[in-house]
Amino acid sequence: MFAFLQVYSIQAILPVLMMDFTATEVQAGMIVGATILAIAIMSPFLGMLSDAVGRKSFIVGALLFLAIPTALIAQSPNIGWMGMWRFMQGLSVPGITVVTIAYIGEEFEGRALTELMSFYVSGSVLGGFMGRFLLGHLHELIGWRAGYYVMAGMTLIGALWVGKMLPASRHFVANPNFRSAMQTLGEHLVNRYVVTSCLLGACVLFSLVGCFTFINLHLADTPYELSTGALANIFAVYLIGVVITPLSTTLLRRFGSARTVRVAVIISMFGVLLTLVTPLWGIVLGLAIMSSGVFITQAATISYIAVNVKKGRSLASGLYYMGYYAGGTMGAWLCGIAYARGQWSLTVWLLLFVQVLALLVASIGMVKTAARAE
User: Using 50, 70 and 90 to split pLDDT, how confident is the model at 370?
Assistant: First the structure.
């Protein structure tokens, strides 16, 4: 939750930032994409480093580092500096996310592993909601600059809490051999489970980032003209994911990952289409359906990789996150171009195209029984 508190928080104040910094739609998208790009770049490397040095200390250290650029965002004189601090945020996030997935994969197995992975996704969903919700309302109360100081303080509290509460690793075995790590990397790059998960993850985050970034501009425009607080409230649909994601464990055990993902992507496509309607309640319902399908897909994909990859888990999850966040970066950029040229309707058709690709990846690449927890 504390990792994802910062990743998407800026989405709630994008219309305000575009006015404050006289930024274009594409620039607004790339402020969101800056953090996601850094996460994509760093995920495999921090995974390899963690395989060598450990888990808990890495997670706590990454949280402490995350607080620094979060506070510095408040000082941004222009859109370029804000993009740089957002990029710096992303450098530390994989030290929390990738390493936590490896930690769960080492400390638990079978049904417990599948359930904990779904709770992990629930935490990431909760963090994604809280970041957007808090910053949107903080802006209305004290302005976005002071709001980011509050967000930095929350991250420091998170680091102290994790340092106190997270149990130390019991099954971690250090692998400081760089040559061995590179050999494992080569094996992962031709591993069907890893490659399929990476492609699916890229499509998933492309959809999520593209949709929840530019729906803000759509709803801030006429006829809706929502304030930052109202936009922050829209993200309450994310909370449905906190409930739905743990339930996906039951679906995975019963139907396997391939069928679960196919159905979840189709549900998500229906939600995206629904956002084309005019009434605000219809758009909110569409966002709720779309995000629910995405969260089930993400939980299924993370469990799929955790269950099937036994060697170099941290590196495997690092590669998954590289693909996942590379997709998110592309979503922020390409949907920005689509929105600038054809507003929300063209953005929706681009999102549907990418979700059709996700459907093809799940149908062709996934092994149907792989995500069953024995």
Answer: very low
Q: What is the pLDDT of residues 108-143, one digit of tens each?
A: 877 888 788 778 878 888 898 899 999 999 999 999
Compute the CA torsion angle 348, 301, 293, 207 (nearest 10 deg): -20
Distance of alpha carbon 349 from alpha carbon 138, whole angstroms: 33
pLDDT tens per residue, range 276-309:
998 999 999 999 999 888 888 888 887 777 777 7
The answer to whether 253 touches 364, Cβ cutoff 8 Å, is no
Residues 64 and 54: their CA atoms lie apart, in Å, by 17
Question: Among residues 184, 199, 212, 143, which one has the least CA distance to residue 323?
Answer: 199
Mean pLDDT of the chain: 86
Q: At what angle do helices 238-274 and 110-142 cross, to 10 degrees?
A: 80
C-alpha–C-alpha distance, residues 147 and 140, integer Å: 9
Q: Secondary structure of 281-311 in the HEC alphabet? A: HHHHHHHHHHHHHHHHHHHHHHHHHHHHCCC
* Selection from 187, 283, 270 nearest residue 231 by Cα: 283
Alpha-carbon distance of 92 to 42, in angstroms, equals 8
